[in-house]
């Protein structure tokens, strides 16, 4: 699930406003980091390997992997809950 799908999923899921706002606030906090936002924008249009992202952005592959892990942990947990409720 990509970031746009995740946001749509959270916004469109029939839950209370607080249950929608908290996950979105957490996502925006994660995207508030300039490096993470650059990584997300680098792979919005297509899947791209960690090494290619690192080369494109002038970062180390381990740093890119670290930031991707944080993003994926955040997106994976709520999407699993959403699929169970569908």
Q: Can you name the CATH architecture?
A: Orthogonal Bundle
Given as residue ranges, the uncertain stretches (5+ residues, pLDDT < 50) are: 79-86
- Give the overall form: elongated
What count of structural domains?
Answer: 1
**What would CATH call the class?**
Mainly Alpha
- Give me the count of strands: 0
What's the order of the H and E elements?
HHHHH
Largest sheet: none
Strand content: under 5%
Give the CA-CA distance, first to last residue. 15 Å
Give the structural class: mainly alpha
* Annotated CATH topology: Arc Repressor Mutant, subunit A
Provide the gyration radius in Å. 14 Å
Overall residue-averaged pLDDT value: 79
By DSSP (H or I, 4+ residues per run), the number of helices equals: 5
Task: Please bin the fraction of helical residues.
Answer: over 70%
Task: Describe this protein's structure.
The chain is mainly alpha-helical and 86 residues long. It has five helices and no strands. The protein has one domain: Arc Repressor Mutant, subunit A.
Produce the secondary structure layout.
Elements: H1 3-12, H2 17-31, H3 34-42, H4 50-57, H5 61-85
Helix pairs in contact: 1-5, 2-5, 3-5, 4-5
Descriptive labels:
mainly alpha; 86 residues; disordered C terminus; Arc Repressor Mutant, subunit A
Brief summary:
By secondary structure, this protein is mainly α.
């Amino acid at each position: 699930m990509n970031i746009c799908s995740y946001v749509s999923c959270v916004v469109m899921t029939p839950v209370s406003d607080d249950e929608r706002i908290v996950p979105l606030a957490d996502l925006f906090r994660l995207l508030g980091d300039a490096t993470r936002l650059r990584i997300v924008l680098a792979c919005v249009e297509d899947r791209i390997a960690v090494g290619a992202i690192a080369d494109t952005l002038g970062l180390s592959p381990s740093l890119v992997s670290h930031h991707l892990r944080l993003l994926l942990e955040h997106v994976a947990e709520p999407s699993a809950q959403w699929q169970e409720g569908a």
